From TrEMBL:
Protein name per Swiss-Prot or TrEMBL: Outer membrane receptor proteins, mostly Fe transport
The keyword Membrane is assigned to this record: yes
Domain Outer membrane protein beta-barrel stretches: 362-761
Transmembrane regions listed in the UniProt entry: none
Keywords: Cell outer membrane, Membrane, Receptor
Gene3D superfamilies: Carboxypeptidase-like, regulatory domain, TonB-dependent receptor, beta-barrel domain
Highest taxon of the lineage: Bacteria
Amino acid sequence: MKIYNVVLLLLPIFIWSQNIKGHIENENQEPVSESSIEINDNQTIFYSDKEGNFNLEGISKFPVSITIKKMDYQDYEITLEENEFLNIILKKDTVKSIAGVTIKANKPLLKRKIDRMEFNIDKTALQNLNAWDILKSTPNILVKNEELSVRGNSQIIVTINDKKTLMTQEQLKQLLENTDGNNVSSVEVITNPPAKYEAQGSAIINIKMKQNVLSGYKGRISTRYTQATYAKGLIGTSQSYNTDKWQLTGNYNFVSGDYVRKNFDVVVFDKDKTRWESDMVRKTHAHEQHVYNFSGQYNLDSLSTVQFGFDGYNAPNNNGHYNVPTNIYNTENNQLQSYYLTSNKKKQYDNSFNSYLVYDKKFGNNNLTWTNNSSMKRFKENQDVETLLNFQGQPESKNRFANNSIQDISLYATQLDYRFSNDKFTLESGLKYSFVKNKNDLNFFDGTSGTLIQDLTKSNLFNYKENIFAGYISTEYKWKKWEMKAGLRSETTLIKTNSDNPVVENKTTRTGLFPTFYLMYNLKEDQQLGFSYGKRIDRPNYDFLNPSKSYYNLYSYFQGDANLKSTIIHNLSLTYTVKDWNFEAYYSYIKDPSMEISIQNPQTFETVYNYTNIDHGQNLGANFSKNFSIKPYWKLNLFAMGEYQENYFMGTDKILYKNDVFFYNANISTQITLDKAKTWDLNVSYVYNSKTIQGSFDISSSQNTNVIINKKMFDKRLEAGLIFNDIFRTNKNTISTRYADQNQYFKDYRDTQYFMINLKYNFGNQKVKDAKAGRKTDEQNRL
């Protein structure tokens, strides 16, 4: 290629950028400070200074559209054909007064985008909740048996500012429970993630935290007291300091308390005519939990930034001593026949640490981002299990065993993304490589002789290695009333697993293609019709591939599956939006869904908790949502859905069974501002989930009602909140199955009824937002 062709090709990249300057004032000719100024679809937001002046940097192309926003003022929009100095006059927004109460309510806003739904909770009473409870209140997100799901599917990814979380479901719940809702801006539910995102998971839930954009310092100290069955406490601090070049944010929370989970398990052996009932109250002492994160950003110049940071979770001594009585009844006369008592002393150490480094460069309409992530996780569990046996016709006896397990995981991922965007066309592409190493060491000790002796026949060493090579391309185009987006992602996965007991070695190499397509038509300014399709994959957590047995007690254990398959999900969706009404109809086909299923063994009377694949599943459903303004100071939010669910599974008798149900959900919440100064807020919400299914199991209906009262004092620097959750103690489940030789049910309650007192004191410039955190990878989520 000749040199002048190269110059012409690269000319748009090296064109000199321009700055747009201006001044903002109100109708009284008073300067308006800290107005937000957005440029087209650019993610950068500028702000006017104390004198109302602003300087927009890096403008490389005209015409350019600008939107200026300021609370209590009407939005101002302008399109510039050429560079000029702007004198902007903002007009006051109308503020209505009813019954002596001045209201300009900030309500949760459901906003439909071409590839996602955004639930905006900024400046609402919902921010007094923690991040976990905010998710439970978000339309389209359901919590079944304390597991998050979207559209009836629990194979989802949770991200924070597009950053993957390095947690199991239980650890993620603890992390989000300890995340201050006041830092949450909105929640995005992405049911068909674009090609830019990893193909992992059927859907993505992205929690958007407030971002750092203004110079200055702010801080917060907070404390929280929660009274459920037992008390829990939190004390924490958040600090942010920003200059023109630096944006720094750090958060730390110390959490201490006792956690309880109550289970009543019933297993019926029809052939033996016995019913085994176990009553478990698992009280866990978690008196030292550390949750921390640090995010930083340095602006090399107006077009280049470096982001860096880390986060972690450390619980060095979660422990409990569980006494579980089991009674065995004769089902013919309902008489007690035998019994045994299990004593389990358990201790856990849990530590995870993640770090990231991101370089971002803008040149004209082009953007280049290089992201690096690394993670380490170490989890140790020791348990000592002793069982006192009193079986009919046998002398009283004791059985004892212990096991120690250590899991070490490390990973590294690097990704390069390119983006070109103008008013009508967007092109995105990228490459990614990741490496994961997981080592699981389980030592089993037999105490039958009175002393604990290592039993190599039940011990296991498991190793897992994974390499993923990925690439994607995605385009978006807007013309007239149409908007179209399409993408294709390719992922090649190399997996090697090795287990020494049982001896299993697997090597697999798979390449998958994952297309996405979106189409939206704007019927009118406030009316859109949309369609989307996406293919996804859900790879199993690393330790679920471990085929060794991990015993809970003498008659139950967990076992993974060395031949566990990845789940393939196909999603179709049709959406219709008119004003504040959002309607959606959808269909999902799920091939080889993986889940934990318990299977009873009539020969050994054991219950095996096995993480495995079922044949397939499918969901067909519809939902709608609406925000109502009953009064200017009184808002009502409604979300309702109905869904037909089918799961096909292979039974213990080698027959293919179908389990189906019509599931429906209602989520209703109301927000009331109680005073003119907007210092009193009241929020009441109610969530109902009907009966649902998981493989061979039926999960009973559940309900949750909560009330939030929030008061701001001393120029809104001191906040006090009072929360009553699960007021009627209806957020519990009964999980049951009945087919062939399987007959069992489990009642599960996770201590969701509580009241909570929140206290927060803010100091410094509270308009300084938290620094934007970097993104993690989907491999980190599977740790």
